[in-house]
Amino acid sequence: MQSLNFTAIDTIGLVLGLFSIFIGIKYPDWDFKLKLKHRSILTHSPLIIFFFIYIYLNKQSSFLGFGREKEVGFRYFIMGFSIGMGIHFLYDLFPKGWKGSALLHIPILNRKVRKQKSIFLFILFTIISFVIAIGLSKSIEETTLFFIFGFVLLGLNKRKEEKLIRPTGSFLLLFLGIAFCIDSEFYEFIVKNIKNLWMVGEVGIKTVFTLIS
Question: How far apart are CA 129 and CA 12, in angstroms?
């Protein structure tokens, strides 16, 4: 199997990315702290990610610019935050019932978004979050590492969310599908090493399930 060189990944940026993925999965529920109604579209959408991207693209992120690259810290932060939010949206796609607080809420209009539109928007927001995270990756190693972070995060949240199979399956489908579309090197790496990766994946899944069971 083609080897991956994870030593090239910036250490401080990596810590920021790992830290931000846990912030990202919790951020949408800050609607309570902001005294908004639950599932407010202000927090349950990629609006804050767009704001981070604006700062990043305008070179205003030097306060988190640790490491070998000026914006590497902030770039990793956005990647982790985006994956965390995307996973939160995946959980929101599988509520106990599509009514009341399960629906998106628009504060300005003070109204709930209907079921089908809420489902569509949650899927769209998830895709946008993953596209941004993967789009910011600059290597196969970075894409792979944040994929692992997301997968582990799903396992760690199993007991809290009381759901695993559907969110995890959706994560695998969307993340890998998007990565294959926008990162040709990652796609070629997976295709060339599919058999070995399948074996490693089986071991990894068994390990995660053992730890969370």
Answer: 22
